[in-house]
Amino acid sequence: MTIPTSTYRLQFRNGMTFDRAAGLVPYLQRLGISHLYASPIFSATSGSTHGYDVTDANEFDPVLGGRDGFLRMSDALREHGLGLILDIVPNHMAASLENPWWRDVVEHGQESRYARYFDIDWSRRLTLPFLGDTFEEVLAKGDLSVKADPQTGKPAIAYYESFYPLTPSSYEGREREVLEATRPDQIAALHDHQPWRLMSWRDAPRDLSYRRFFEITGLVGLRVEDPHVFEAAHRTVLDLVREGRVDGLRIDHVDGLADPKGYLDRLRAAVGPDVYIVIEKILGEGEQIPQDWPVSGTTGYEFITALGNVLVDGSTHEALTAAYRSVAGDVATPEDALRDAKLSMANNNFEGEVATLLKLALKLHEAEDATAIPSEAMHEALRELLVAFPVYRTYGTTDGMPAEGKALLDRVVGDVRGGSHAPDDQALAFLHRLLAGTEGDDSDEARLFRTRFQQLTGPLMAKSLEDTLFFRNHRLLALNEVGSEADPHPASLARFHVEMKTRLQHQPDALSGTSTHDTKRGEDARARLYAISEAPDHWAESVNRWREMNRAAIRALPGGPAPEPATEWMFYQALAGVWPTDLASDDTDGLKALEERFLQYVEKALREAKQRTTWGDPDEAYEGAVRAYASHLLSSKNRSFLEDYRATLEPFVRAGLVNGVTQTLIKLVAPGVPDIYQGSERLDLSLVDPDNRREPDFDTLTTGLAEGRLPTEEEDWRSGRLKQQIVRRVLHLRRNHPLLFRTGDYLPLAPAGKRAEHLVSFARQTEDKSLILIAPRLVLGAFREGDRPLSDRWQETLLPLPGSVGGRAYRDVFTGRRFDPAESLPIAWAFVDHPFALLLSA
Predict the structure, then answer these.
(1) Where would I find the Glycosyl hydrolase family 13 catalytic domain in this sequence (predicted)?
(2) Using CA atoms, how far apart are residues 607 and 612, in angstroms rounded to an integer?
């Protein structure tokens, strides 16, 4: 198997086409990239900005240039020696009439050849939850009519621009009569004869006949566990692999599948042993990918979490919490807040999924002819199990539950039984036995219950933690990231080293990401916000000062002030992360551009929090008041605040730039395959999507990639030129020494002396090569004390070089300077040219 030495994630659509990507290939080669890592490229719904709403898994999207465009891009990659990794979506497709499979199902119901392609409950009519109100209200308003579909000419029920095809048996032999139906009762009668029924989108969480992706009604679950469906959905992908045009696959949301291992085994058998496969999988604390999965690892969210152990000051953990509460008030503990979010999700957003499980459980228990368990008791026990799950899911199959899954299930049940919200024990014991798949529980209904339960715990965790709690708990936004925990341990450098050794052991070929299209903020925004942990009291004092300066912009509403204090804390922190390094407080145009981006974030943050407004039921008065506050912050007329904010922010900006370089160096050298998200080879100060999916300035990136000496002037740090050159230099090093980075030992090194706690260091080593990384951390204090060069601060600090790391000659990768350190290396000596070092044995 060819393992990438690095990947470059490119977001297609929004102007990025195959031909444009082909034009970037020479730049990627110069940067040192080994594989282009493409977002979904197959046909998606009209106007899709991401491609995960697939309409045809075997057609290259014409918007991107179609098959011919893809082949031109593929040829360009081959010509320059780069490989290609495709992001594929086996879990779901678009529930859209643009999807020919779905359209056929809508038209023909259970008689469709594709009826079993999707996870549909055919015990009732297919629900189409795309009306703005109930069917009766929409019909009464005259918004429904019978018309000939402009594409097919066949009769359809029209709702604005959508034409829902009538099943042939409902109009055959009387097509003209049907097309002339205009009265509401005629349309209603025709509707009643369809294998589908139209309903309000608001009813989807309670009454849906198909499995969806998370809570997105427009994405329907695909049954790739069926070999026929697997073949149909992967036909073109497998052809590309056989043709040698695709070298690797990224599997989207593997936990959504009925049987992830079964799918991956089938995929591996189809693509052969040489294709690189990684999976999008959120690992909980201490969790590892099952050893028998035939993949190289995850897409790397856990790597982001590990980096927090290096760049967050763990000694201020309690002080930061106190500082946050001094502004936000008496907030719930993370544990209680997560439980509250999960309960809300289970009772509302996933109400229908929970109800389906409850119905199955009651039916199975009744079949046992045992003492009846009341529905409410079963419901409570089921809900408590769902809420208590600490990771995304277990992986039980028709063959039973693996040992590690059973152990986890036993522990969760024990925690629920012994907790303060313990449900009825008989109901809990029944569900435990049902989920464990013990003897006697092998009916189709029991297997379906286990599958659906496992497919629900993941979305419930994701939507409760990442898309709810992380928009409610604003203590340190840098830690509110995909893959993080609700209540992370205090940061620990020792824990980071342990995690890297574990990473080398379990998934040395996994991707190491720091920015993705799904992260809550860009890597350099996160790196800057880490610095807040170094001065929590100073930050709290500043927030209180800014709140006072902007107090007149707060609006008193019946539900409380808008924004509330916790939201103000969040605003000042989020704005700190996204503030451009070159934005002056009097730059009117720059402030306006930032305001436009920030207001998008404000809307998303408020609605995802689901406290005073939501996507489904927005509170316009509240949102309007909070948006006005956010706009006031960035108004050029708010000069005194902007000057104070920008001056206060400057030390954090500079510390963030150092953190960003350290973060980049670690990613490039630590175990794993570094993934460069488009544009993040320079500064990535983005907010959550859609902000992080904006196209970077490729002209600046390509023209600014210079050869020669590493640029280390102040402006080079602030523009990202330094970071880009570091990436280029180390990526080429990785290409020249792949085994050093893939299989080389990971050796934590322990700096000693005056500034030891402000350094992170480790070595990668094989029998004939050694590479030492030394990088700064926790440097905010240096910038707050004054504008002294970092290199002046490292006197009386040494790096001991134990064992085989010492006694070698080294050269600095960036300057070529030679070092013969023997048993220890003076940090001031290593940092003469720049405040970091990467030393390769000569």
Answers:
(1) 6-709
(2) 8
